[in-house]
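Appendix B: complex inputs.
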Amino acid sequence: MKKLFTPLLLIVAAMFAYAPVMIANAPYESSMGLVQKIFYFHVPSWFVMFTAVFICGIQSANFLFRRKPSADRIAVAAGELVVLFGLLGLVTGPLWGRKAWGVWWQWDARLTMALLLELIFIGYLLVRKYGGPGSEKLAAAMAIFGMANVPFVYVSVNIWRTVHPKTTVVPSLVPGMFGAFWFSVLAFMLLFVLLLTLRVRLEHQRAALDELYLAEEDL
Amino acid sequence: MKHLFRACCSVLLLAVPAAAFQPSAQGGFVPVTPLTAAEQLPAAPLLITAYAFVWVAVLVYVWSIWRRLGKVEHEMHALQQRARRDSR
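Resulting structure:
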C-alpha cells in the first residue's frame, strides 16, 4: 500500500481539481436550478459514509467474534471517517434544502434517521475515547447496531412520505448528470481509501508505541 | 377631581388623532407569481458554502491525522533513543 499511496494521492488531487469543471458543465435541473449542483458532493458523501459504516461494522464483528486486534484498528479508523463524511452530508444537505424546500431542516424520516446514524457513530468515538479499559467491545457492538441502521436510512424515502428526493433519482440521471455524478463518487471513494490508509497507519503506530512502552516496563 | 378630568380629556384628545393616522392592518395576503429576481434567495452563496465546507473539512481532517501521526512517531523515536541509551 505504501507504493500505491503517492500515485493514489496524485490521482485524487487531479480528480478533485477536475470535478468542479465536470459539475459546472452538467445540465441544470429544471425546478431547482443552480443549487441542485450540491447533489454532486452531497450524495457521494453519503455513499462514502455508508461504505465506512459497513467497514466499521464488519471489522467490529470481526474483532468481537474472532478477537483480531488489527480488525479493531480498521474499525476505529473507519468510525472516524463515518463521522467526517456524515458531517459533510449533514451540512451540504440543509444548504441545498434551504433553497429547494425553503427550510434548513425538516424532521422527516430520512433526515432524522441520517442524523441518528451520525449520532450513533459520534457515540462510538466518545465510548472509545472516554470509556476506559474494555470500551472497545462496547463500541464494537455500537458499530454493528449502527450498520444495521443503514438499510433503513437508505429505503426510508421510499417507505415514508418525506420532502427528500427518492432513491430512484440516481438511476434515472440523464447522461450529462450521470458522468459528473459517478466521477464525483469515484473521487470521493478514492479519497476515502486514502484517508482510511492514513488513519489505519496512525492506529498501527499507536499500537507499536504501546508495545514499546510495555517492553520498557518489562526491562 | 377636576385635575383628573382634565388629564383624561387631554389624553383622549391626543390619542384620537394619533390613532386616526395609524396605517391600517393587513387584512389578507395577495399572491404573486413568479417572484421578482431581487426577492429570490440566491443559490450561488449556498453552493459555494457547501463546496467550501467539504474542502475545509477534509483539509482540517488530513491536517489532524498528520499532527497525530507526527506526535506518535516523535514519541516512538524518543522512546527508541532512550532504550538505546539505557542498553549502553
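The mean pLDDT of chain B is 80.
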